[in-house]
Amino acid sequence: MEILIPFDNREPKTRLSPVLNRDERQQFADAMLSDVLSAIKETNHTPHLLVTTPTDRSEKVTVDDRSLTAAVNKFLSTTKLPVAILMSDLPLCTPAVIERLFSYETPITIAPGLGGGTNALVIRDRSFSVDYHGYSYRDHCQHAASNSLAVSECDSRRLATDVDEPTDLREVVLHSDGAAATWLRTNGFSLNIEQKSGRVSVKRDENNNRE
Amino acid sequence: MEILIPFDNREPKTRLSPVLNRDERQQFADAMLSDVLSAIKETNHTPHLLVTTPTDRSEKVTVDDRSLTAAVNKFLSTTKLPVAILMSDLPLCTPAVIERLFSYETPITIAPGLGGGTNALVIRDRSFSVDYHGYSYRDHCQHAASNSLAVSECDSRRLATDVDEPTDLREVVLHSDGAAATWLRTNGFSLNIEQKSGRVSVKRDENNNRE
Lengths: 211, 211
What we know:
Two copies of one chain form a homodimer. Helices cover about 30% and strands about 20% of the residues of chain A. Chain A contains seven helices and nine strands; from the N terminus they run βαββαβαββαβαααββ. In chain A, the strands form two sheets. A seven-stranded mixed beta sheet of chain A has the order 3-2-1-4-6-5-7, sandwiched between helices. Chains A and B meet through α5 and α6 of A and α3, α5 and α6 of B. Chains A, B: It catalyses: (2S)-2-phospholactate + GTP + H(+) = (2S)-lactyl-2-diphospho-5'-guanosine + diphosphate. Chains A, B: It holds the Pfam family CofC. Chains A, B: Belongs to the CofC family.
């Protein structure tokens, strides 16, 4: 099955600007995309990048600089179904969870993200369209219900963990050895464990400051 | 199978004190426990509460006021295996994900929590013991490896979402209609959607202030 991966390669991951400068955000976003593509390559599915500006990646590419929602709905209106849409900022993604995402037979499968977003979708019915925003999971469920389409939830921590904000980085360092985790480690990020509470965050080595 | 549910009923959820007073934290922790017990009751498994002070709950109860690690290891040393240990602060827990937790055949199954904790365990080998702390998932994996015990990861957003801090409350309001979500709604909590970013948090109605 084809897996569409929307990727804003013009101005990615602006909410990480408190800890990463513009070049670093682009490198890190690129590393997360590489993790997603690596996981897909170990399955029988085919990645298709939906980017905002041309890229020299070797995968099949569509360029569309409109909003995420408009670009995905345009793609859906012309592509063969079923199709999956997987976010590019899921560095904990594995081949196993991608296979699980496809294991449901309902017209719609959704893997919700933390915070209520929609991190992965499998669409088997042409009456469905997307509307991406912060808490889109609920709205996608309601949109499916209003079209009498059954929805399965793919219950996955790995697909739920999209990396948008500095606090999300700890999950990458904790649970991955992939490209994004390697990029973070190479650039001075490591786990910081509060002695009293045992809580985990990430800190950056002063010699690897973004300034 | 028996499912041990450790529950600190003396001073629960202190990290929620910025938004809930002591009585409220006890009520809310109790509601989360009720959600976990409700999910278990729809399976064939049997809950067993491990509490810090006596309780009038009708389930099988063991009282042990030592640390979580000491109390669980004492329980493990005397109980029949296999056994599961499930945290009480998982209000998104469903019968389906509890069944999935038991579907792995390895000696150890772990459902990691966000932030690196261990939210659920299935133990089928007596050489394993627990050591709970903030980032215990890694250490439990290493402990299993040093005893030549294979580990399965139960990849679940619902089991990963333990509610410790104010920011965790949004997941409950977003994704549940259970006792904990009802308690939050009844006590004035609702979703707050930032117009610009679309980000979701929870806010509390001023008429339901904790003061």
